[in-house]
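Appendix B. One record, verbatim.
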Amino acid sequence: MNTKIMLAIGECPPGACNKIQTIGNWITWVAAWAAGIAFIISGAILCWAYFSGHGSSRAMKALGGACIGSVIISAASALANALMT
């Protein structure tokens, strides 16, 4: 664990660094799981649209949203890790 996180106003107070990192880890973990679930749901919608004979434009929008969300989560996680080191 990084015990020294530089913030815009200076160093974090004693004992707060681990809490800030823990909260960031939980947010990243929940966001990654949400992105994974979004991929599964969009895949199910795509499969349903294919087998029912309906257009798959809604499913492709959902899949595109899941992809963009995953990229944003990855970029934010990398940026946060870079700022914490």
